[in-house]
């Protein structure tokens, strides 16, 4: 993750030497002095443009993957992720609503909060429609998620068409991007990320208990319904925060936890923290690709994750059927 | 230690349990027997408050309705008939889940919790399996792991739903002997449902015979394992050889035999 983060800082329209980037960053720490740092103008690029972007990538990637892993644990369903459950499109609808009524500039309260409410409503609706049983019901849950997503997107399109002046802003946001608005976006997501991932990481052993099913979990002294609600709240809050700053970046929430599970087994003690770390690194890495592949033009990062994630997802579906 | 007072359970108009009462003193092992569908599993689930029931259950003289879920889980540990095995989980992590009832929200396992797991794994000769994934174990090994998860909770009462049904006769004896030895090392009250009536008589101090949700008989193995009663309840043809400590069997031996009508 550290390597990718440093690379993420170094690569871009103005290439910086990775070694010097590292040296400059270490130099910023108190009581440490490094020679061989970047020039002042390069340092400015690093601190004002690259670093916030990398920080945002780490946060959003960590959030999407961590929340995906949480949803999968709570619903005991390997296909549950922020996108398939409708949380992301709900958050999108909430965010677009906030933008169209002119709340875009309101820092940590406007867009994220609307996104959270939208996401929560969508997850509740998906779950209400699709939960024929927490233990089975994969298909119906996913179908409900698709329906809810489609509905949210429809309402969102309607909102966008009737508010054409913001269309371009919303559209670029929708495709998924890591904004270049400096540190502001980072500061917007940070509190939500800490709250959401903090809760999930600290309580991750409970996800293992829930994996035993409601009956055995109850026998171990857990109240499954209460626990489920808390985890869904935390994951939805995290999803909403990620979506509200970076738009719709798909597949990270499902691909990363699966990779981690494949390699390290299925205890959430391991899955949750590793998913966050791998997700963070992966998104920053993907962002490098998004910036470099067609340079100087940037591909929206959501397009890149979809390009890489969709085939993987299909492989997963195939192996799940067996 | 654990008592039932007039338990009744009905689901969708069907009576699953009806007026079931008993008191099991601390340290006793009660076997629960009866044909398929008699209500054995339902009874165990009811004892930990998992069914809507009439009547009352008391554990350590407290009505379980007044005991918080966590506290009840610390007093009574259950091994269900078909435990869920999460995909890919390692034995050590699975057994550690048994400590859940000792942990609050925001709390993580301490060194003490892990030490309990290590000790119980050693006691059940599972140490070498700690890192193995659950799916790679044999039926007999799995059964010991389930037992380990229940034991790490340090319960006063252990409820076992058919702990030996999937096992061959050697492993049946091994698991039941193990449970009996653990019972000796600390005061543990055990209720286990069983299909093998001879084994039930060998290991349990007392047997409860259920049929259609009712208690048909409750007493010592010699009182319950009685040929006429069993033949009627199970609809089976069988012989019972009385206990004979001199020849090495402490309880009556129940032998299913082919019916005479078949043979002629
Ligand atoms: N949720 C339920 N709804 C309807 N009927 C149920 C339900 N749970 C159990 N039963 C019925 O209650 C009866 C008793 O079931 P239970 O599982 O307690 O039997 P058992 O004695 O454990 O049987 P076995 O020896 O086969 O395990 C069965 O006829 C079963 O079909
Ligand atoms: Mg049963």
3D architecture notes:
The complex is a heterodimer of chains A (322) and B (264). Chain A is built from 14 helices and no strands. With 322 residues, chain A is an all-alpha fold. In chain A, helix 1 packs parallel to helix 13, helix 4 runs parallel beside helix 6 and helix 8 (183-202) packs antiparallel against helix 11. Chain A is globular. The two termini of chain A are 34 Å apart. Chain B has 264 residues and is α/β, with parallel strands linked by helices. Chain B is globular. Chain B starts with a strand and ends with a helix. The chains are: A mainly alpha (322), B alpha/beta (264). The A-B interface holds A 202-203, 205-206, 208-209, 211-213, 215-216, 218-223, 261, 265-267, 269 and B 45, 48, 50, 69-74, 77-78, 80, 83-84, 86-90, 93, 97-98, 100-101, 103, 105-106, 108-109, 133, 153. Residues 40-41, 81, 161 of chain B line the site of magnesium ion (MG).
